[in-house]
Amino acid sequence: MAASGAEVATVALRRVDPSARGSLVEVLERAGCTLLPNTAGCFTARDAVTTAQLAREAFETDWVKLEVIGDERNLLPDPTELLEAAETLVADGFSVLPYTNDDPILATRLEDAGCAAVMPLGSPIGSGMGIRNPYNLRMILERARVPVILDAGIGTPSDATVAMEMGCAGVLMATAVARAEDPVRMARAMALAVEAGSLAHGAGRIPRRLYAEASTSFEGIPELT
Amino acid sequence: MRVTLNGEPRELPDRASVAEAVSAAGGQPGGRGLAVAVDGEVVPRGRWTAVELGDGQSVEVLHAVQGG
After folding, report:
1. B6 → closest Cβ in A15, A35, A40
2. In angstroms, what separates the C-alpha of B14 from chain A's closest C-alpha?
3. What's the mean pLDDT in A159-183?
4. Check: complex ipTM more than 0.85
5. A94 CA to chain B: closest CA distance, Å?
6. Helices A45-59, A79-91: crossing angle, 10 deg rounding
7. Which of A74, A82, A161, A81 lies closest to A115, judged by CA?
8. Per-chain mean pLDDT for chain A
9. Which of A53, A136, A163, B9 has minimal CB crowding within 10 Å?
10. Average predicted confidence (pLDDT) for chain B
11. Which of A64, A65, A160, A170 is catalytic?
12. Given the DSSP bridges, would you call strands A170-172 and B2-5 parallel, antiparallel or unpaired?
């Protein structure tokens, strides 16, 4: 966590394991991380709402990363259950950060429902396939009035840089760092990648051109033959 | 009485409180980062000692894990 510079850590809720030693929450809080409980593993709006309410009790925060999965194999969000859960949780006072498909219409619907951010996937969770539909992500970014956070799919630092260059407010990742051969080194690489992309977004990139444009003017060129 | 505690059948004293169930599950009742549902309903931390369980109820005692 220190190497990545991450300010927020998402945690899931599972049954207490009597054999577990130490407290994940205490470790994260010592590292200065803000906790973002999630509803990972929920397949219905009802389960996600109950899990969010349990997380609020456990961690004393109104923040929730809302995940409502529609399929065990691809772990893609279930759009109708997701929207229903988001509406319920917003009405219950939560700051809802939904993990969503890279669908500009659904992103708008979630924003209209009162979500604090929208978190489209770049590609399926843990796939490391990067941003498969930058065109959709661009439309989400252009329309959104809340922060857009890329959630899922990052495989390597250049994926994170692209997301930030495009205008994302942040990125979420787990597998790309945790399953790297050297996680601490990869975490540091991700921190640099996010910073580079963020700076580049602010700096404004040059337009793409089909043909070359000389960086030196032809004016003043000597005649040598 | 018999309850289901984190998916396992368990014997608890009659009218045992939610706090006792938390201890039986291996959680520290005062510990942060714990949450309890009884029959799918959230029991707020402030009510753990007051709420009594009944025979046959299902209790989930949850804590934070990495991921998601």
Report:
1. A15
2. 23
3. 96
4. yes
5. 16
6. 40
7. A82
8. 94
9. B9
10. 89
11. A65
12. unpaired
B53 touches chain A (CB under 8 A): no
| CA distance to partner chain A, nearest, from residue B37 (Å) | 7
Pairing of strands B8-11, B58-66: unpaired
A65 touching B (Cβ < 8 Å): yes
Helix, strand, or coil here: B26? Answer: coil
A114: tokens are 């009162």
Q: Which member of A20, A58, A65 has the closest CB to residue B35? A: A58
Residue that the structure tokens 């990495």 belong to: B66
For B2, the token pair is 């018999």
Q: Check residue B31 and give its pLDDT.
A: 64
Q: Is A65 a catalytic residue?
A: yes
Domain B2-63, CATH 3.40.980.10 — does that match? no
B24-56: pLDDT as tens digits: 888 876 667 899 999 999 999 889 999 999 999
Q: Closest chain A residue to B68 measured between Cα atoms?
A: A40
Average pLDDT over residues A169-190: 96
Which tens digits make up the pLDDT trace of A104-122?
999 999 999 999 999 999 9
